[in-house]
TrEMBL record:
It comes from Streptomyces polygonati. Catalyzes the oxidative decarboxylation of 6-phosphogluconate to ribulose 5-phosphate and CO(2), with concomitant reduction of NADP to NADPH. This is 6-phosphogluconate dehydrogenase, decarboxylating. PROSITE patterns: 6PGD. It is an enzyme of class 1 (oxidoreductase). The keyword Signal does not apply. InterPro entries: 6-PGluconate_DH-like_C_sf, 6PGD_dom2, 6PGDH_C, 6PGDH_Gnd/GntZ, 6PGDH_NADP-bd, 6PGdom_BS, NAD(P)-bd_dom_sf, Pgluconate_DH. Residues 179-469 form the 6-phosphogluconate dehydrogenase C-terminal domain. It catalyses: 6-phospho-D-gluconate + NADP(+) = D-ribulose 5-phosphate + CO2 + NADPH.
């Protein structure tokens, strides 16, 4: 019996996806550079479905039904190129290579272009949900040709998570690198979500004086409302956890430095190139890097700050409600920025991405899954050409209702010396978009002064330059 799909790269993600396919009735060929991983998978889970273990690349390719579907789940970067170089010569026109690793979308574009010349469909695919999602249903973001999705899509739809309405959390995102681009922005939004949650915790602790266990309770109540999400839920669990060795709150014994693997950084780098203001994501990436500068932090510990007073019980409870408003409003801004980046990338690369479909497939399986995504899905369903999430009536109304509390929270943070780069960047974005006039006119005038960079006027067509070094008369430029 030939295999419906083959998986090469059987570390946690690859083996769990292979098992997920097998549990859905597909025959799965297995391959890993180091055979021991293949053997371990067969030994531990071989009874879960139909697996075809193989040792060599030739054996692996020969085990696959044509057109062949070959899923690569190796470490992103050079290993992916090495594996493609190993397998591509053994494949034929019409075969499909799926890369489920966290590749940079520019690498995916290059690989797709190179393999297309050989007639091979290359499907760069974002997979979110961690190990657990890979096994029980991830959110899957495949790029590549529409033709490849025709044969691959129905399989992915079976193994993907299902949203509450039963819809599978996968769809054809768009050509070449579109899938990995969307996965990248997903991770950027994940960084922002996590940073905002961390700031809410910090405020509840430092300003309201709550303990981690009390904050866990507050997060649990939030999780019953509009903030219902995987990340809020796991945050409550982490905060409620006590360290067995010391009896202290677990969060107090973990080294206070956040690491990163790079997809958040990519999101910001690409956003800078595209000129998209994803300030919330950028602040989240910077907050992690700042936390890692242990020496810089130690050297600055004695700098003066405001005299702290914590709130009384009643004021603390009121403050917790305000923090919920601030968190929700900031979250709307993060998603507004992330979707703006996807929209801009889609236009730049000609991907024609359906933003509503993206919101829909993030409703289940992935790390940012949340009730909130139902609302984004609904916003795009009622208006597919929505220029920005903030122009959706319901989001505009909600953020408007939250804005007073949001300001109170940011002001309290400033007064108490609690850094809230996420909350305040989101609020600055909101206020900048609202502003009738920004000081951008002044910036442009300065540019004209020192560099003759010219300016446009609101009252007349054309481009102008003022003779700053001369009689300051205005000339028509270019
Ligand atoms: P790793 O990222 O740890 O990669 C380990 C796998 O890569 C092993 O199978 C290893 O083979 C193989 N490999 C390496 Br390393 N270099 C190779 C080479 N030159 N040729 C052939 N194979 C090579 O595994 P993972 O954590 O399961 O992640 C797999 C992919 O999925 C990554 O791209 C990751 O970014 C992505 N991803 C991970 C998550 C997650 O939550 N972990 C979520 C979403 C996406 P060996 O056994 O012979 O060493």
């Amino acid at each position: 019996e030939k295999a419906d799909i083959g998986v090469t790269g059987l570390a946690v993600m690859g083996s769990n996806l292979a098992r997920n396919f097998a549990r859905h009735g597909f025959t799965v060929a297995l391959h890993n550079r180091t055979k021991a991983k293949t053997d371990a998978l067969i030994k531990d889970h071989g009874d879960e479905g139909d697996f075809v273990p193989t040792t060599t690349a030739e054996e692996f390719v020969a085990a696959l039904e044509r057109p062949r579907r070959l899923l690569i789940m190796v470490k992103a970067g050079e290993p992916t190129d090495a594996v493609i170089a190993e397998f591509a010569p053994l494949l034929e026109s019409g075969d499909v290579i799926i890369d489920g690793g966290n590749a940079h979308f520019e690498d995916t574009r290059r690989r797709e272009r190179e393999l297309r010349e050989q007639g091979i469909h290359f499907v760069g695919t974002g997979v979110s949900g961690g190990e657990e999602g890979a096994l029980n249903g991830p959110s899957i973001m495949p790029g590549g040709s529409a033709e490849s999705y025709g044969s691959l899509g129905p399989m992915l739809e079976q193994i993907a998570a299902k949203a509450k309405d039963g819809k599978p959390c996968t769809t054809h995102i768009g050509p070449d690198g579109a899938g990995h681009f969307v996965k990248m922005v997903h991770n950027g939004i994940e960084y922002a979500d996590m940073q905002l949650i961390a700031e809410a915790y910090h405020l509840l602790r430092a300003v309201a004086g709550y303990s981690p266990a009390q904050i866990a309770e507050i997060f649990r109540t939030w999780n019953d409302g509009r903030l219902d999400s995987y990340l809020i839920q796991i945050t409550a669990e982490v905060l409620a956890h006590t360290d067995a060795a010391t009896g202290k709150p677990f969060v107090d014994v973990v080294a206070d430095q956040a690491e990163q693997k790079g997809t958040g950084r990519w999101t910001v780098q690409v956003a800078l190139d595209l000129g998209v203001p994803v300030s919330g994501i950028a602040e989240a990436v910077f907050a992690r890097s700042l936390s890692g500068h242990a020496e810089l932090r130690a050297a600055s510990r004695d700098l003066p700050g405001p005299r702290g007073t914590t709130l009384d019980e009643k004021a603390a409870a009121r403050f917790a409600d305000q923090v919920e408003q601030a968190l929700y409003a900031s979250k709307i801004v993060s998603y507004t920025q992330g979707f703006h980046q996807i929209q801009t990338g889609s236009e730049e690369y000609g991907w024609d991405i359906d933003l509503g479909a993206i919101a829909s497939i993030w409703r289940g399986g992935c790390i940012i899954r949340a009730a909130f995504l139902d609302r984004i899905t609904a916003a795009y369903a009622s208006r597919p050409d929505l220029p920005s999430l903030l122009s959706d009536e319901r989001f505009a109304q909600e953020i408007g209702a939250a804005q007073e509390d949001w300001r109170t929270v940011v002001a309290a943070a400033v007064q108490h010396g609690v850094p809230v780069p996420g909350f305040s960047a989101a609020l600055a974005y909101y206020d900048a978009l609202r502003a009738e006039r920004l000081p951008a006119a002044l910036t442009q005038a300065q540019r004209d002064f020192f560099g003759a960079h010219t300016y446009r006027r609101d009252d007349r067509e054309g481009t102008f330059h003022t003779l700053w070094g001369g009689d300051r008369s205005e000339t028509k430029a270019g």
